[in-house]
Protein: Anaphase-promoting complex subunit 5
Organism: Callaeas wilsoni
Amino acid sequence: MASVHESLYFNPMLTNGVVHANVFGVRDWVTPHKMALLVLLSELGRAGAQLGLLERRRLNRLLLPLLQGPDMALSRLRKAIEECCPHLAGSVHIRLKLMAEGELKDMEQFFDDLSDSFSGTEPEVHKTSVVGLFLRHMILAYNKLSFSQVYKLYTALQQYFQKDEKKNGADENEMELTNPEELGGKMEKEELDGPLREEEIACGPLSQKQAEYFLSQQASLLKNDETKALAPASLQKELNNLLKFNPDFAEAHYLSYLNSLRVQDVFSSTHSLLHYFDRLILTGAESKSNGDEGYGRSLRYAALNLAALHCRFGHYQQAELALQEAIRIAQESNDHVCLQHCLSWLYILEQKIFDSCVLLEHSVNKSLHFGLPYLASLGIQSLVQQRAFAGKAANKLMDALKDSDLLHWKHSLSELIDISIAQKTAIWRLYGRSTMALQQAQTLLSMNSLEAVNVGVQQNNTESFAVVLCHLAELHAEQGYFAAASEILKHLKERFPPNSQHAQLWMLFDQKIQFERAMNDGRYHVADSLVAGITALNSIEGVYRKAIVLKAQNQMSEAHKLLQKLLIHCQKIKNTEMVIRVLLSIAELYWRSSCHTIALPVLLQALALAREYSLQYLASETVLNLAFSQLILGIPEQALNILHMAIEPVLAHGAVLDKGCAMFLVAKCQVASAASYTPQKKIEALESAILNLNEAKTYFAKVDCKEQLRDVLYFQARLFHTLGKTQERNKCAMLFRQLHQELPAHGVPLINAFK
């Protein structure tokens, strides 16, 4: 089920996606790259009406990332301009060449001429525009340079231009040996709008504006689309470079903290988080914005973030101590917002010890009272999640989520809308309503396009999307659409690489789907090899799958010991869904050991739990197992009666394998009941059983379940023989023989296995 607690992390660095870097001490300076931009702006003003509307529009869209971004090589800049206007790119190159190959006075004259852009009644550039502010900053920075600094700038410009000339010469030599068509292709927009390249940032120390832009972009990408951010090692390297020039740059420490969380580095993340709040206090940034409360505010939020960090890594005792410190400071300062964040985390910590929704209900009420819709909604989501596990009715949970959705739409909390839909998908899956789960999953996918979009406009790489896509892949696999499931998993791997924080979700689902396919195909050695991977991601699932493999390999005593240990553990942690599945597996072990009467109490216990916790699908599956027990005990008529009650949910919402097993069981019960019928009625019952076997065969073929197919063909051949249909019998016998030679025989009687 979707986790709703990750969003409780307080992020004082982000406000509407903007990083507040007010303490960065490096001023803005003139560089050769910025001089190339100044030449571009100058040529753009000279071109005037000669430029077409489309070309001007392209250039205007290009200018903003160029002005905000870091310095880049001249060849890349020229290529970007050529995509918009080839003629203008040539003019910029000629102008730079004249300046670089001329004298120092040419550069002096160029900066003198820049001031003319603001003169006249209708100036080319307005002083307060983005371009105007950039020009004024550059003119001011140039005028403050000493003569020696001006000479160094001119030398740097020459080297900048000569480096590009050498590269062009090398490219021309390569083109003589290479097909020109292979070197073609346009620069994609993402190359400029996307994340910064490592070689770009490494050109030199960033100015204040460039640092702010870099941190803002990377922080937003880490939150919304981690795959587009720099790799953890590269990002940390650039942050270290920033901190080398200014160790008191608090926001760089916070981004370092977020980056360390990506790779689960508890030491580095704790170190960076403490440095962030230390620098925030030392620089006085908080005091300037919050008055005398700034110092205390930093301390209490530092303790709160430290508690959240420890809780994330499972250090609950340390998290509780940090949280107590945050609560104490917040109470002294009468900070109700911080106290509500603390109350939310207190519930999470208490949840590890005992189930209590009192704290959570109190948190929701207080958050609504103090006008904190985000926290209130997260509280409602957590409350719904807890009550879903407690077995509350689905209609009451959906009513609660509807109230939560009203808060989302009222306050435009788009991220929480996604979480709510993912939560609904998981709840319907828990209750066994796959059709409703599929509908909710498609709702979320249709709300946010999976195409590449601007960061902040749509969030399509969040945990909610990972959860929904994983459920969608599993739903397709259950219905036998393995190719579609593979495509979904492939898409998940692209959007959430193995080093991303949500990758474990699809890894687990991928392993589970592979495991089910191997079990269906009778390749138990392959399934056994997958158990280790599942156990690493989810220990409970791994132990359960290991027991299933042992059971399939007829290692009954080992499987029984494993299931008994798992049952005790799941009862202790109150994992009701797994308790029921374990009980069903134990009952099957008793069947295979011919202890049919011992299996009945186990099944009745599972049925009571399934009905108590409103797990309809598991209840239906348990009833099918009870019907099988009654068939074994010689009362097939009673088995048929209870089958009619349970088979409808299975056919409506069940996996293809479960549908096939249910129809196979119906056919077995029909054949067993027909023994006491009149000859005519017996023939009708056997023909009806053959039709049900055909349907079961279709289901088993869809999921490539060869063992079950073999059993169905054997059963059909016997029925056709009884009815005197020799041709059909021979066909089934031939198919049975082919499968029987392909599959190993374990010597277990056909009637002693339900699934």
Remarks:
- The chain has a mean pLDDT of 80.
- Residues 58 and 84 are 6 Å apart (CA to CA).
